[in-house]
Description:
alpha/beta; 11 helices; globular
Amino acid sequence: xxxxxxxxxxxxxxxxxxxxxxxxxxxxxxxxxxxxxxxxxxxxxxxxxxxxxxxxxxxxxxxxxxxxxxxxxxxxxxxxxxxxxxxxxxxxxxxxxxxxxxxxxxxxxxxxxxxxxxxxxxxxxxxxxxxxxxxxxxxxxxxxxxxxxxxxxxxxxxxxxxxxxxxxxxxxxxxxxxxxxxxxxxxxxxxxxxxxxxxxxxxxxxxxxxxxxxxxxxxxxxxxxxxxxxxxxxxxxxxxxxxxxxxxxxxxxxxxxxxxxxxxxxxxxxxxxxxxxxxxxxxxxxxxxxxxxxxxxxxxxxxxxxxxxxxxxxxxxxxxxxxxxxxxxxxxxxxxxxxxxxxxxxxxxxxxxxxxxxxxxxxxxxxxxxxxxxxxxxxxxxxxxxxxxxxxxxxxxxxxxxxxxxxxxxxxxxxxxxxxxxxxxxxxxxxxxxxxxxxxxxxxxxxxxxxxxxxxxx
Length: 458
């Protein structure tokens, strides 16, 4: 097994491409984008398509896709993070439903861009299964479906499946039922990232790698090579936002870990099924997420060590042996036909989490500062919608996107250390206890509901 090295997705492509040149010196542009992940690249793509004359530069401290954009679980999800009540405060249930519909349409928008530019990213819109591994999880999933109806979703968006219906799709040991939504696709994250980066370069966008931005201020991004002056500076730093001055408590870098198996034998796939390539999660409080890869492996991820003191990040993505063992055990429990298939690679990465668990997109014409982030693991698709929204905000063109209820939010900051570290680790410890209680009692845990409320996730 290999660990770190930015993860299996890059390794499957023969490793990351040779680094692009760094910024050679001070520069001027119409738009300077800090961060060459999905948010930065989608923003550059849509701006350049809307106004080809724009001079756009992307500044990246490491290499394009260094962070979560090429280390994630490969879910192009039409759902987004955070409780509906946060988005409904200003516009009510109708406004929340509009944001949700925009996200559903985003999955097809990503597919259309891949098709237009002939980017082969293993994209399959097979939908999403959340599987109940026990009676308590089954009751919680039924509550989720009922709650979704109150927020404008219908049976075509999210519905329950019986155990027999689930087994027709995929055979998972101990599964009592599931929910299914068609609004999610599977993708190879690094293929998507590298294809998108190449596309924006062909459009005339300049990407400078190995160019650290030490500070962002009005109309300016500061680098060791000099300042980049621009009418607009877009912060697209997501899980690495805490490294910038003044933003230590804006987003915390939450850690998530993954493993991927060696290819399974055809006989194992005959037993498992999973021909629809749905992405799969379980209904636990400390959940896992899975995909069947194009080359016949299973990739599974979960939280592992959720947070490092002081919002530190591990660039190499090394993963603790205990986390690898836990994910491997979970995989074997769900899919006994996996048997002794070995783990080929383990890796970790960080995602940006705001205090209220909800996404923010905004642009200030007075300072020329724009930003998007706080996807909490849903960024593969949400970054695309954010990029299109930033396009309209930056160009000053009011649209249906600029009225979405994640635009202009001001979430409160995270608590200072050591309170932040203690609180985050306590939350995940209590969620694990809630899962243990539910396995024992077969009923939803009051503790889980309490932690949801206290942490802001409900």
